[in-house]
Amino acid sequence: MCGRAPAHSVRGRTLGGLGPTPGPDYGRVVIEVRQLVKRFGSRTALDSVSFTAHPGKVTAILGPNGSGKTTAIRILLGLDAADSGSALVSGTRYRDLRSPLFEVGALLDHRSAHPARSAFDHLLALAATHRIPRPRVHDVIDLTGLDPVANARAGTFSLGMSQRLGIAAALLGDPRILVLDEPMNGLDPEGVAWIRSMCRAFADEGRTVFLSSHLLAEVESIADRVVILGRGRVLADGTLAELGAAQTFVRVRTRHARDLAIALERSGATVEFDGEDLAVRGASAAQVGESAARSGFALELLSPESPTLESIFATLTTNEIQYRSRGGSTAYGPRDRE
Amino acid sequence: MVREIVNRPTFAALMRGEGIRLLSVPFPRWIAVAQLVLAAVAAAVIASIIPITPSNPEATLEIIARLFELVAWIAILCTTLACGNAIGGEITSGAIRAAILAAPRRGRLLCAKSVVLFLTALLSAAATTTGSLAIALPVLAAREAPITWSFAIPIAIAAVGLCTSIATIGLIAFATTIVFRSAAGAVLVVLAVVFIAPSVTAMLANELDAPWLSGALPSVAAHALIMPALVDGPWRALDGTMPSSVPWHGAVVLTAWLALSLLGAGRALAGPIDIARSSPPRSLARGTGDGRAPVGTEWIKLRTLPSTRWIAAGTIAVLVGYGAFRAIAVDLEEVASDLELASRIEYVYAITAGIGLAQLVLGGLAATSVTAEHRFGTIRTTLAATPRRTIVSLRKVAAVAGATAVIALAGLALSWGVVSIIRAIRGTALGITWPLGLASVACGTAYLVLVALLALGIGGLVRHAAGAVTALVALLVVLPSLFNVVLAFARGTPAVWIGNLGAFLPWAGERAYMDVLLGLEGRVFGFAQDGALSLPPAIGGLVLLAWVALALAAWIATFERRAV
Asked: CA A203 to CA A209: how far, in whole Å?
């Protein structure tokens, strides 16, 4: 592939999605999904879903079960046809890629090897289609820690081993893009850490990582960008910092909560009561401290809080569910339709 | 290192990948070995027992023709199973997804798979044919049968026809499996078309005066490719029903079948093929564990599968359709002596005409009721709910017996009604009594239930749907024919005992109840003058019961110990 960036030229850690990272390739879009619609019978699995993924970044698609993550990935990989919209990899449809294994390494559903075939033969058959030399098969087996079971039938594998075999298949062509559907499923803590460092290193080489998950905590530490899906629609799309900034607040605990709240609102901040505490938005912790000191209020707690992905996610999906249940109570609710 | 090597997935590379896939799963390899061994045994038997005519070289070619006929039966059975299984496993395990991701152009992938499979099946068939010749010819030579070098050309032509048609039928099974997304259903359909359709179609073709109907079947086309080179003049099957054909016609017919099935496979492969359509029984999600209805849980599992409803409808349609067809098609006017007996025989035959096919379909239902549980792992859920495995087995026996009894009874009763009406309309009600009709329905139902239980036992033993279906077809259809061929040649020779073994196949049960119905109880245990064994009906029924008991007992006994 002539367009592939040599590994050494882009080595060096990119900072988690804070602004554009220098480098010739980084502005390029390698995964582009536009206005994707997919219906299964009367159920809409994807409702005009759009997102992108970029070189040098780990992009995570998040959502609860049934939110359409896997459907989007399947359409992206040409395994399923969309009703409308487009899904492009490196500017073309997956099925038009000249050498798909060199371009995209994909992991879907664990257990995608024949139960009676050995892990080695499974990889060898895949390698043969792209004339990938046999030593590379041994390489990925080493890399994924499959050596002890390489000649065992895939049907005897544990969930974690199947997952490693899927990742080995994805890495086989040393691809520029990794697409991983729920890669952490079934892995032990060591395996999860390994996936994380692999994804990070992969992106740091200027390649693209696109993964889905519902284990939010697992992705939080590696994802540069997140796309949040709920019921087939994109609820949020942006860097972690962008998503977090909207909801950063300062938690304050004081005996004079009411008076402090009035003082803070007068200076332009927004204040909400959170139990006994105040949640202050629009003012930094230092500003809140100063304001309290001026009024002579003693503070028991002053802490800047940025929400975890979990809480962002919970807020977004709760809204989504509320929205949906309001929709369901109209003249033709879901039950009536059936 | 890989980074520099940028290779497109060329067609040759795809074929290499498919070759590795095909050869790295043990099951097709075992089947190929089984095919080789079975054909070798058949060759040894045929070459040793068929009478030799030292003065007539044509007779030797006739023997080779018989040998090739047996090899074709064995190889079609094995190759169909192996080819259906080769792709069925890829689909149900989801391994096909990896193949599609590496070769996203599915048309090319299908072509690569087809070519590799065809070549492999061709090689295996060639090895089988060569092996059987290598055993048969020396044996024949040792018995001083005339063999000359001039045989080489007709034998070679016939062998090429044999191998090509076997590989083609294997490829048809492969394509049908993609359409069905399940090896068991596809193998059942292909074997039914190859082994059962000819007799029905021959009758139909005869009635409609349209001999091309028979010629349009793949098995008849295969014969047309094999036989003319060996046997001078139009070749006729043992039962004399098949029309003579010329080889080019056989090639056209086989190609048409292949093209049709590959077209269907192409369409199926264009869809989301990597999501297995079949699913575990839905009832497992429902609460059935209250223990009040012991058979209930198995019954619900059977009843809630969409395939069960399809099979029930199909079986009833087959029984009624065959019955109606036979009642309409067969004329009794040509019978000169004892018209009343002929009329009674025809009445019983018409009511039960569909049993030959219905037994395979119901057997498939019974076998998959247990193999599906192993396939999807729901057996673990079942055993978690009922840890005593023998009880699980007995519940399955009861559920399968009940379900098949209901389906068979409905089909045969309807067939009885339809046949009686047609006979009444045609004014040929001679010798027809309602006890005879009722007895036909009852005996037919009993036979179908017993065969279903046999299939259940086999399914539980092999835990593999396609394998169980093939074993069933072998036991019920192919082996009886093989032994009949052997018996036909071995009459009056010391080797007649090999042919007599055929009397102890499960099929004996069907003959037994026919004899009872038709008042032919006169048959007693004994040997005819030419050494052919005849069994009284009671023993025939016992033979079938023994097979059923053996299969169920072996399943239940081993199920207690085997891991799930």
From this structure: 6
* DSSP reduced 3-state for A104: strand
Does residue B333 share a domain with residue B263? no
Asked whether this complex has an ipTM greater than 0.85, the answer is no
Range of the domain at B175: 11-271
The answer to whether B552 and B542 have CB atoms below 8 angstroms apart is: no
**How close is the nearest chain A Cα to the Cα of B266, in Å?**
15
Q: Is B395 left (phi over 0), alpha (psi -120 to 50) or beta?
A: alpha
**Cα(A78)–Cα(A94) distance, rounded to whole angstroms?**
6
pTM score, whole prediction:
0.78
The reply to whether B243 and B297 lie within a common domain is no
Residue B192 included in any domain:
yes
Q: Is residue B281 part of a domain?
A: no
Same domain, B371 and B449: yes
- Same domain for B148 and B193? yes
Cβ-proximal residues to A323 (8 Å cutoff; 6+ apart), any chain: none
**Contact (CB<8Å) A112/B93:** yes
What is the count of structural domains for chain B?
2
- DSSP label of B143: T
DSSP string, A43-94: EEEEEEEEEEE-TT-EEEEE--TTSSHHHHHHHHTTSS--SEEEEEETTB-G
pLDDT for B31 beyond 80: yes
Closest-approach residue (CA) in chain A for B97: A112
Q: Is B525 exposed, middle or buried (0-12, 13-18, 19+ CB in 10 A)?
A: exposed
Looking at the structure, tell me whether residues B226 and B329 fall in a common domain: no
Looking at the complex, report in whole angstroms how far the Cα of residue A174 sits from the nearest Cα belonging to chain B.
Answer: 7
| Nearest residue in chain A measured CA to CA from B27 | A116
Which residues in chain B touch residue A96, judged by CB atoms under 8 angstroms apart?
104
CA distances from B546 to A311, B64, B98, B459, B550 (A): 67, 36, 46, 17, 6
Segment B69-125, tens digit of pLDDT: 889 989 998 999 999 999 988 988 888 999 999 999 999 999 999 999 999 999 999
| Nearest by CB: A111 against B9, B25, B94 | B94
Q: Which residues of chain A have pLDDT under 70?
A: 1-27, 110, 215, 244-247, 307-310, 313, 317-338
pLDDT digits (tens, 9 = 90+) for B412-464: 999 999 999 888 888 776 767 888 888 889 989 999 999 999 999 999 999 88
Per-residue pLDDT of B458-516, as tens digits, reads: 999 998 888 898 899 888 888 888 888 888 877 777 778 888 888 888 887 776 777 66
* Cβ atoms A312, A244 nearer than 8 A: yes
**Same domain assignment for residues B400 and B446:** yes
Same domain, residue pair B191 and B338: no
